[in-house]
Design goal:
Layout: E1 2-10, E2 15-22, H1 25-33, E3 36-44, H2 59-74, H3 79-89, H4 93-107, H5 112-119, H6 125-137, H7 140-197, H8 203-217, H9 219-237, H10 240-252, H11 256-277, H12 282-292, H13 296-304, H14 306-310, H15 315-322, H16 327-339, H17 342-397
Antiparallel strand pairs: 1-2, 1-3
Helix pairs in contact: 2-3, 2-7, 3-4, 4-5, 5-6, 6-7, 7-8, 7-11, 7-17, 8-17, 10-11, 10-13, 11-12, 11-17, 12-13, 15-16, 16-17
């Protein structure tokens, strides 16, 4: 994604400055218009190596930041002092640059939420809006605690999934590397020997030699093909409709699709619970949640429920009619609405889906391991048969 700096005039006539992420300037303008009437200027921010705020700040760093702010504010220190202390102590260069800018803004009378919005172009909207709500309601300490729990949970969940996939990914990479080495170094030796002996080669051996020759002499064609596929993919996903189709497709992939949907359910529950707990109205919380969903297809469906909510429909009914989120999540949301305990219900169902993600990840790894072993066994068997078949043929003719 690209980062754009913009100026706009809000619906109340106030001048607004900020940063926004989008795939194109056209998409960025459309996003800005969701909250403001008129975009007066917009320009891409070039994120070079020397730019300290290039790239996103990860969830773990945000969780630590929110924990520190919660403790300092809870101790009774002014928010300006809290920001200055963190800016002076943090070793995260990106965060340090942001906090130094925020401290200057806050000292000049700018609100904390607006300061983070303008100085941290890649900070999550969940972070900004929860702080804004906390400032307006005078519950900043509570908002920071909620944000810490939210980002800490998100970081741990992503870490678990990544750690679970390390072994299968490492095994596949090593296996591909070894197979390429065999094709490039070992097989040509056997090919020369067979040529000298004048042996009539069986089909598997001819196939192996053909693959070997391809890797030795035409490897650049494979690299070019991979690069071409990546370029076509990037060009294809630039269009909003195409990107949504790709995101929808990811949810339909066997094994991985189910895990992806569980992650979306968990993210929806955790984000909604955090925003509602911070005091945001349900409609606004849903709108923000739709924007931050990792899967943009599900995010677009969630944002599509806003119009129904504004018409007076219930959240549970809106989710049922407009989204593909799991039925259990939708039903539990409806129960939370009816009982007046939406925040706690979403917390509970979010924890349930976190457990389901753990279970599904373990199952996926357990299933992938034998599949990888079987695939490697077939490849090794093919190579062995291809190499030894001419030898058996030669011995049989003696």
């Amino acid at each position: 994604m690209l980062t754009y700096k913009y100026k706009a005039i809000s619906k109340k006539g106030a001048e607004i400055e900020g940063f926004i992420e989008a795939f194109s300037e056209y998409e960025a303008i459309n996003k800005i218009k969701e909250n403001h009437d008129i975009v007066t200027s917009i320009s891409e921010v070039k994120m070079g190596k020397g730019n300290a705020v290039a790239g996103k700040i990860n969830e773990k760093a945000l969780a630590i930041l929110c924990s520190q702010l919660s403790v300092i504010v809870g101790a009774g220190l002014p928010i300006l002092r809290a920001v200055e202390m963190i800016a002076a102590q943090t070793e995260n260069k990106k965060l340090k640059t942001i906090m130094e800018g925020v401290s200057k803004d806050v000292a000049s009378g700018v609100s904390l939420a607006k300061s983070f919005q303008t100085k941290g172009p890649n900070l999550p909207i969940t972070f900004i809006e929860t702080i804004r709500s906390g400032e307006e309601s005078g519950t900043l300490e509570h908002s920071f605690r909620r944000l810490h729990d939210y980002f800490d949970k998100t970081a741990k969940m992503k870490g678990k999934v990544k750690n679970a996939m390390v072994y299968p990914a490492f095994t596949m990479i090593v296996a591909v590397f070894v197979i390429i080495i065999i094709m490039v170094k070992a097989v040509p030796v056997f090919t020369n020997s067979f040529a000298e002996l004048g042996v009539d080669l069986p089909l598997p051996t001819k196939m192996l030699i053909g693959l070997s020759n391809f890797f030795v002499h035409y490897w650049f064609a494979l690299v070019a093909l991979i690069a071409l596929v990546l370029v076509i993919y990037k060009l294809y996903e630039k269009k909003e409709d195409n990107r949504l189709k790709l995101e929808h497709f990811k949810l339909k992939i066997p094994i991985f699709g189910k895990l992806a949907m569980l992650k979306q359910a968990s993210q929806f529950a955790a984000t909604m619970s955090t925003l509602i707990g911070a005091g945001l109205p349900v409609v606004e919380a849903v709108s923000i949640t739709g924007k931050v969903m990792d899967n943009k297809y599900i995010g677009s469906q969630v944002k599509g429920t806003v119009s129904m909510l504004e018409e007076g429909k219930r959240l549970g009914d809106s989710l049922h009619n407009r989204t593909e989120l799991p039925q259990l999540l939708v039903e539990m949301t409806a129960v939370g609405e009816e009982t007046g305990s939406l925040e706690s219900t979403l917390d509970t169902i979010g924890e349930f889906y976190d457990g389901e993600i753990d279970t599904q990840t373990s199952r996926m790894v357990t299933l992938l391991e034998p599949i990888i072993i079987c695939v490697l066994a077939v490849v090794v068997l093919f190579i062995l048969v291809s190499v030894y078949a001419p030898m058996f043929s030669l011995y049989g003719g003696i």
